[in-house]
Design a protein that fits this description.
The chain is an alpha+beta fold. The chain has one domain. The chain has helices at about 1-15, 85-95, and strands at about 45, 50-55, 55-65, 70-80, 100-105, 110-115, 125-130, 140-150. A 6-stranded antiparallel sheet has the order 3-4-8-7-6-5, covered by helices on one side. It has a two-stranded antiparallel sheet with strand order 1-2. Strand 6 and strand 7 form a beta hairpin. The chain is globular, with a radius of gyration of 21 Å. About 15% of the residues are buried.
Length: about 150
């Protein structure tokens, strides 16, 4: 008797939460719009100025960082491509828009660069070797793209 009472109470709570739709709910797969005004997509990063790169992997984190001095956008990507392949794809696309690359740090498993264009924001990219604890993902590298948001 007691088990059926508990079951009915839980069922009633679940059903009560399934009220009629008001139309104001956002869909679960709705895109978030970062400060740059571009909707997030799981398989590409859109840089300032509209240049974008697609990659074999996924966008795992977006951060909007704000402090007293500035605001930054940061995108973290896990990819099945190697770190130099990711850099090559990003640099090829950004070079079409007039960016140059300045290497900040290069060592085994880590490559950090600035993509620079006069009159535009500097894009910092940190590429590193990376393996997840799930071998089926076949993730080989991580890329973190950061730039300052101009008001």
């Amino acid at each position: 008797m007691r088990t059926s009472t508990v079951f009915l109470m839980v069922f009633a709570l679940l059903v009560a939460g399934c009220g009629p739709s008001t139309g104001n709910e956002s869909p679960r797969n709705a895109s978030h719009v970062p400060a740059s005004g571009t909707a997030l997509q799981l398989d590409k990063v859109v840089f300032p100025g509209g240049r974008e790169i697609s990659f074999d992997g996924r966008l795992v984190r977006y951060e909007f960082i704000q402090n007293a001095k500035s605001s930054l956008e940061r995108f973290t990507v896990y990819s099945r491509d190697g770190l130099m392949s990711l850099d090559g794809a990003a640099f090829a696309e950004l070079a079409k828009g007039g960016y140059t690359r300045r290497i900040r740090k290069e060592e085994a498993g880590l490559f950090v660069v600035n993509y620079v264009k006069k009159g535009s924001v500097t894009i910092t990219a940190a590429y590193s070797d990376f393996n997840t604890k799930f071998p089926a993902d076949n993730i080989q590298s991580k890329a973190v793209f950061t730039w300052q948001v101009k008001d």
